[in-house]
Structures are given as structure tokens and as C-alpha cells.
Amino acid sequence: MMISKNARRFAGACLMTCASFALTGTAFAQTTIKMAMSSVADLENDNGMTAWIMQNYVNSHSDNLKFEVYGSSALGGDQDVLQAMQLGAGATMHVGGTAVYNSIVPVGGVLDLPFLWQDFDHVGRALDGELGAKLEARFEESGFKVLGWGYSWGYRNVVTNGKAIEKPEDIKGLKIRTIQSPVYVAALNAMGANATPMAFGEIYTALQTGVLDGFEHAASMVYSSKLYEVSDHVALTRHLFGPTVLTYSLTLWNQLSEEDQKVLTDAAKFAIEVNRAMAPVRERKALQQLEDVGMTITNVDTTQFKKDAVPLQDELAADLDATDLLKLIRDAQ
């Protein structure tokens, strides 16, 4: 069968066009970054704000990277997400409190000792120095690239449903949800509570059904997650301050080009700067927001708690093989 010259030209043009599309597709293939967190993906909490800043920075500074945010445990609970990241699967990144890594990087539990941090600046001085460098190395040994240390938007306080806490002994025996971390459990039990480890996503229902008497968290998380709908009172115990950490799956990090790594490093640096600058303001704002929706805010004398915490810090740090790290934290006061 004879093929006309025009037909051959048309076929050739089609092949060239297809090749062009194929090359274009290859040249602009994007790496999708999935940022996971258990908190709500909004701007009312520290993790949500950090993720939003990173997403906008990366997507506006790179044609190679596509940054997506998955809040409210959309990719699974923290432990499931972190274990998958170690394998280079599931989520690419995670942002959250350092305590959720305690079962994987136990020495990091030193950051979550009770009544340890004096103020926000104390956290920054410690983590921006030798302490942070040593912990970053330990995180890498477990499969995580640390891109930055952030601030929780406020200290953690005890939040209850029904019974207000006005004095230290009011905490005794209450079933208070805390993070699934031995350090957090020990801290709450030392205060007299019946610490109840539980995934963040289960708190709302547990309070509704009476399984819990309360929980402990920063005011910004209480507000952004609408936990004020199932609780009444905030006792300003300020017993824990869990720093936050931005991590990337080390397996996936090593697959990135230097150019893409720089974009992500710059994005993380900017996000952490904003996160830290906003922390004191956001803590005050969140407490006011909780008061505005009807929650009562009470001050509690924690003098004895703080005295009792010092030997507990020493004991827990020794158990974690982190006595040297505890000294770095105390020296940074």
C-alpha cells in the first residue's frame, strides 16, 4: 500500500510531538512531599502554621517539588507515620512534638522532662547549640533528617471536664490523657494523676464517653482541635514544654538533589523562625480564646511540683542515658 507524502509528514509530526510531550513530562516530573501531623491543618496551632509556611515556600520556590499537607492523622497516627518514614514509605515529612519520637529515639525524651524549661528563649538557646547537634545525630541514626527545632505555642496544662483544678491535690487520681511516652506518663503520675497514654485523635471521644477526666496540652491545640467542646477547665500547671521537630525520611532525603535539599532547608529555616516568633503571642491568644468560649482558667501553685521534679529529672535522664544532655539544658538557662 502506498503512503502519501502528506501522510508521512503528518505521521512524522505526530511522532515529534509525542516525543516532545514525553521529554517535557520527564523534565517536569515532580517529587511529591507529604507532610503528616496529628494536629488539625489550620493556622491556629503551631504544627499547622509550620506546615502551611513550608508548603507555600516550597511550592513557590521550586518547580521540582510539590508539597502537600495532611493533618488530623490523615496518613495514620504518629507512630504509624514515623515507622513508615523510617522505611521511606507513606509520609515524607512529619511535624510534631518531640515526645512522639520517644519510643524510637529514647534519648530525645530528655527534652520532655517535667518543669525543665524556664521560658521560650531557654529552649532556643539549648537546641541551637551542642544539644541540638547531638540529638540530630541520634535522629539520623534512627532514619530521620532533622530540618529544624520549633516551639510549641505554649506550655502544656491540665484540662478537665467537670472538675476544676484549683490546688495541686485536686489532680490526684484523675485519669488524664497524655502522650504515649514513658517520660510523660512518669511526669503526670508524679503530679498525682492517673496518666492515661492515648493517641491524640482519640481524646475527643474519650472525654465524651467519660473514659477520661481530662488531658494535658497547650492551649492552642485545645482551641484548634475544638476540645473545648468536651472540656470545661484549664489549670495553668505549665508542667511540660514539648519542643516540636521537623523531620524528613532520611531514605527519601538522600534521594533528593542538592538543589531540592536547599529549598527544603531554607523553607524549614523560615518556618521555624516564624513559629518561634509567634509562640508567646499565640499562647496568650489561645488562652483568651478558650476563656471566650466559656472555659475557666485557674492558676495552680506548682512550687512543690517543681521541687519534686528535680530528682525525677535526674532519674529519668539516667534511665534514658541522657545525663550529659540534661546538663547541657540546665547550663543553657
From TrEMBL:
UniProt subcellular location: Cell envelope
Does Signal count among this protein's keywords? yes
Q: Does the keyword Cell division apply?
A: no
Task: Tell me which GO cellular component terms the UniProt record holds.
Answer: outer membrane-bounded periplasmic space
Q: Which Pfam families match?
A: DctP
Q: Which UniProt keywords apply?
A: Signal, Transport
GO annotation terms (biological process)? transmembrane transport
Q: Per its UniProt record, what InterPro entries does this chain match?
A: DctP_fam (IPR018389), TRAP_DctP (IPR004682), TRAP_DctP_sf (IPR038404)
Q: Where is the signal peptide?
A: 1-29
Q: Which NCBIfam families does its entry note?
A: dctP, TRAP_S1
Which family does the UniProt entry place this protein in? Belongs to the bacterial solute-binding protein 7 family.
Q: What is the recorded name of this protein?
A: C4-dicarboxylate ABC transporter substrate-binding protein
Protein species of origin: Thalassospira profundimaris
